[in-house]
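so my prof wants the structure for this chain in the tokens format not the other one, which i didnt know existed until like an hour ago. anyway here's the sequence
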Amino acid sequence: MDAGRRVRYPGGMAETHFRPEPGPALAIDSLEAAASLEEVVSVLRRSARAIVGSDGIAVILREGDSAYYAAEDAIEPLWRGRRFRLTECVSGWAMLHGQAAIVPDIEDDPRVPVAAYRTTSMRSLVVVPIGAPVPVAALGAYWCASVIPDDATVRRLEALARRAAAALARVRRPAEAARSREPAQPSGR
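here's what i got, hopefully its the right format
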């Protein structure tokens, strides 16, 4: 049955049947099939914006004491390729605290570096950490209007982040194992 197809029953009753939105299931399947960090980042960049209905999405990687904006899909350029100190940005706050940052108005939240947002039209955001107990990344969703995202939107973003964490852990294991098998370098003495 087609999504949204109206079915007529005897007696004048009508019932509308809807198929579940395929976006989350496709994203989960793609994350499970991802074989590299780049593929995980690409899946998040391609799918998260539609899943949460935002005006922009950013995938942020934790690199030491920095947050690196690795990828984005937005109605305008955001911060792709830029690095911010973890202590000076809201994505860093989410990673350092291991919890979602929900910001209905960027002007009213001290975790947000307002100057960085003044070059964009983004006014609201949700950033969720990826990975636990120590987050290795974050996923940010941005809106041009001042909105309070509903619980379902935040839960979808958090569910995507949990799946991304599992994918990142899986793709990093072989690389870490290979590094541990490398022979020690001579000290040069």
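also thought this was worth mentioning. The longest strand covers residues 66-74.
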